[in-house]
Write a structure and sequence with these properties.
Blueprint (H helix, E strand, L loop, with lengths): L1 H13 L9 E6 L1 H4 L9 H11 L5 E4 L7 H15 L3 E5 L2 H5 L4 H17 L3 E6 L8 H18 L2 E4 L3 H4 L17 H12 L6
Parallel strand pairs: 1-2, 1-3, 3-4, 4-5
Helix pairs in contact: 3-9, 4-6, 6-7
Length: 204
C-alpha cells in the first residue's frame, strides 16, 4: 500500500501544473460585431484579440455575436454564454436591429437593463455599445432610442462607446454595397472607437 501511495505521489509531482485559464472578454452583439460580409479574422472583434496580444494582455476574446440579433435574442442567450465562458468583461452591442424594426423603446431598454444586471451579478464588467438608427424613423423615436443608452450608462456607471456615428456614416466608401455594414477596411476604425473605453477595464 505504501509503495502504491509513493508511486502516485511521484506521478503527481511529475505531472505538469495546469496553467490558469486566461480571462475572457465576451462580445454579445449583432452583425456589426459578427463580421457580416467579411472573411474570417477581418472583423473588429478579431482585430481586438490581435491588439490585446500585441500589447501584452492575456485575454481571450469570445465572439458570441449573431447577425440579425435583437435584444430579445440577447436576453435568451445571455445566461448560457455567461455560464459557459465566465467572462471578466462583456461588450454588449445590441439594439440596432430593434430600432430598425421599430420595436418599443421601453422593451429595448428593459432587455438591455436585464442583460447589464445579469452580467454585473456575475462580477463581470460591462462596456455598452450605443446603437443609432436613421433619422427617417422620426426624430422623436430616434431621440428616445438614443436616450436608452444614456440612461443606462448613467444609472449603472458603466463605460460606453459607439461603433458608428454621423461622421462615420456619411463616408459610403466605408460600407458594403448594402450601405449598412462596414467594409474590412473600416474594421480598424471600429476597433479604435471601442478601444479607449475598453482599455481602462483591462488588467495585465
Amino acid at each position: 500500500m505504501r509503495i502504491v501511495l509513493a508511486v502516485l505521489l511521484l506521478l503527481l509531482a511529475a505531472a505538469p501544473a495546469q496553467s490558469a485559464q486566461p480571462p475572457v472578454i465576451l462580445v454579445v452583439g449583432d452583425s456589426l460585431s459578427a463580421g457580416y460580409g467579411l472573411a474570417p479574422g477581418q472583423g473588429w472583434v478579431a482585430l481586438m484579440q490581435q491588439r490585446l496580444k500585441k500589447q501584452g494582455y492575456g485575454y481571450r476574446v469570445v465572439n458570441a455575436s449573431v447577425s440579425g440579433e435583437t435584444t430579445d435574442g440577447g436576453v435568451q442567450r445571455l445566461d448560457r454564454a455567461l455560464a459557459t465562458h465566465k467572462p471578466a468583461i462583456v461588450v454588449l452591442e445590441l439594439g440596432s436591429n430593434d430600432g430598425l424594426r421599430g420595436l418599443p423603446v421601453s422593451r429595448v431598454q428593459a432587455n438591455l437593463d436585464l442583460m447589464i444586471t445579469k452580467t454585473r451579478a456575475t462580477g463581470a464588467q460591462v462596456l455598452l455599445v450605443m446603437a443609432r438608427i436613421p433619422i427617417n424613423y422620426g426624430p422623436r423615436y430616434a431621440s428616445a432610442f438614443e436616450g436608452i443608452y444614456a440612461d443606462l450608462v448613467k444609472r449603472y456607471r458603466i463605460g460606453s462607446a459607439a461603433l458608428l456615428d454621423e461622421d462615420f456614416a456619411v463616408d459610403l466608401a466605408l460600407f458594403l454595397p448594402d450601405g449598412m455594414h462596414p467594409t474590412a477596411q473600416a474594421q480598424p476604425l471600429l476597433l479604435d472607437r471601442i478601444w479607449p473605453q475598453l482599455h481602462p477595464l483591462l488588467r495585465r
